[in-house]
Amino acid sequence: MSTATSTETIIKDNFPLIDQEVHDYVVNVLQDGQEEFQDADEVYEILGEMLMDVSDRAKNEKEIKIICSKLLQSVKMPDGNKKTSNGEHRILSQPVHLGEMVSNMSSQVDEYKSIWCPQKESLTTVDQKKLEKAEAKLKIKQEKRDNQENNPVPVFQMQREASANQMVNRRDVRMDDVGRSKDIKIENFDVAFGNKTLLLGADLTLSFGRKYGLVGRNGIGKSTLLKMISSGSLSIPRHISLLHVEQEVVGNEKSALEAVLECDANRHALLEEEKRLLNSKDDDAGEKLEKIYADLIATEADKAPARAAAILHGLGFTESMQKQATKEFSGGWRMRIALARALFSRPDLLLLDEPTNMLDMKAIIWLENYLVKSWTSTLLVVSHDKQFLNIVPTNILHFHNQRIDPYSGNYENFVKVKNEKVKNQEREYESQMEYRKHVQEFIDKFRYNAKRASLVQSKLKMLEKLPELKPVEKEEKVVLKFPEVEPLSGSPILQLDEVSFGFGSDDILHKISLNANLESRICIVGDNGSGKTTLLKILTGELNPRSGERKAHRNLKIGYFSQHHVDQLSMNLSSIEFLASKFPGKPSEHYRNYLGRFGVTGDLGVQPIQSLSGGQKSRVAFAAMCLALPLLIILDEPTNHLDVETVEALGDALNHYKGGVVLVSHDETLIRMVCKELWLVKDKKVTSLEGGFEQYRMLVEKELEDVH
To answer: Using H for helix, E for strand and C for coil, what is the string for 302-334?
Structure first.
């Protein structure tokens, strides 16, 4: 009998419902790799996950490893020792109790597959992604072995991909599928990024219809967790539909409205079938059309265009923009289309990563209202916007210390409960330490006193029984420090007089007059596309006005933080190397000092910038901006990618800074903390709002009400 036949016998005995494609793949891997595989663990590494999926019952890891060992023996066995299967009888692993099987058949039909039981459709097939994953593992193993042979000296390589592991009870997963519950429980899972463990033995529970805000420090792994969920690396029931708004819509000839409507696959398929039938000469075309129309009415397909248009309008698309081809929009606007598609599709689970980054204040307020009033499915959102986290989430998930702690209520309630929890833990720890100290003093005092020996022993046993408490792990407070600057004589230090700017014959800004000094704390607000960034570039001198005059103090140094600052960083360099390339001639400690002012400390300073999180990259950009010792700081959307604590730290740092500040932001927390003046850019003009942010928010809410 051939090796392949012996291998096939083991496969068929243990996986009777295996798909033929998967069967052939397993056989080929074993035959091709028989010289490569050193032990059963290597076979399990390549095929273990796939074999678990195709098992007719929930085999555990130990059982699968035993099967892998048998498979390895079948391909390693010398020809002379191969057994034949002729005349062999298959011995059952346990007796068959027909009466018990019949009584349990309704609830456990998957566990009793035999000629006496009705067969369910096989759920053991493996999709192409599983095959590709196994192939990739095998390829990596072969490459590693080749590298070891050719390069015996180990070479360090930084891993740039995240990975996730999870202990899954596959029977529970199947029962979830059968029950069709839309609640999600991901238990006992690990997530790592290269050599760094992000989560260890973590649990995540998402109840259907709840809105969860995922919070935690920059770089802790919040975005990575969303990617692990959306990629299928963490197991959720297969019947739950999921959308992760991560990438912008690909630009093409389709309009923004069409791009949103086409994501309703069922409606799109019905309309396509309607077109086909209208041009068809089939005898039953009329009957089929009637069914199509009935389905369209049942799904309220006629209301879909109005619903899609309302979502797009809420996200800032005018009627003419909705008809515009997607290829004509910038990346930020195509991200809004991607968000509109997700809201229109209404998946069971929606994953949003910093959705407010791409939106202006009007769109943020609309999104807050939409998610609170109209969103009925489960939402998991990562956000730095404190106001957004106070309005939208019903629950907060705190990502810290390699675990996720759940809290009920919004962000404000989370902070209150968490602080109280930390205080209680500190009190409990201190109380136990004091008690231990007191008991230990008694033991030490009477350790050699024969009369007190029994009492000393009881005290020792008492100490042993006390639960071991660890010191409370506190997250370090985020502190940002802008440099000290020398004052300038004279005021204002920067002024615009009757400035106009535009392209062609149209003005973007028309006859703007304003000024700033070292005490200025100015916030600029307005809709996206109104000219806020253009105004900043005129203030920095990057753009020259077509008319009017820009006046600046001769000794004025301006620090500019662009919302596209990531594009200006050298990703292959470390943070220290990047600062040295921008401002050469200083010792490395000088650059470390500036990075330390913005929380880029320790190994972060020597890692390639591309390996840092979005918030950490922003901190590097802050440090680079401050090395020139600016007297006026101009910030364009500085809170993008910063966590809540860092946004508050930025507000404190700007308030302590002795120079002037002009910023464009949609973050309500930062605006309220810093700004003394609020400039509204609208209709080519810049207007100062005496009522500050409260007045601006009222104007925006009134505009939204007028639309409805």
So the answer is: HHHHHHHHHHHHHCCCCHHHHCCEHHHCCHHHH
The HSE-up count of residue 362 (CA atoms within 13 Å, CB side) is 22
Contacts of 265 (CB under 8 A, 6+ apart): none
SS (H, E, C) 23-89: HHHHHHHHHHCCCCCCCHHHHHHHHHHHHHHCCCCCCCHHHHHHHHHHHHHHHHCCHHHCCCCCCCC
Q: What is the pLDDT of residues 491-527, one digit of tens each?
A: 789 999 999 998 877 889 999 999 999 999 999 998 8
**H/E element, 687:** strand 685-688
Q: How many CA atoms lie within 13 A of 228 on its CB side?
A: 22
Q: How many CB atoms lie within 10 A of CB 545?
A: 17
Residue 604 DSSP one-character state: G
For 553-582, write each residue's pLDDT tens digit.
988 999 999 888 877 889 899 999 999 999
Q: Which of 507, 505, 554 is nearest to 531 (CA)?
A: 507
Contact 627, 582 (CB under 8 A): yes
Find the DSSP H helices in 466-587. 532-540, 575-582
Closest CA to 359 of 348, 343, 373, 347: 343
Burial class (CB in 10 A: 0-12, 13-18, 19+), 45: middle
Euclidean distance between CA atoms 17 and 23, whole angstroms: 10
**Helices and strands (H and E) in the chain: how many:** 25, 18
If we measure between CA atoms, which residue out of 377, 123, 127 comes closest to residue 241? 377
| Contact of 528 with 537, CB cutoff 8 Å | no
Query: Which among 388, 327, 379, 380 is positioned nearest to 356, based on CA atoms?
Result: 388
Separation between Cα atoms, residue 265 and residue 272, nearest integer Å: 10
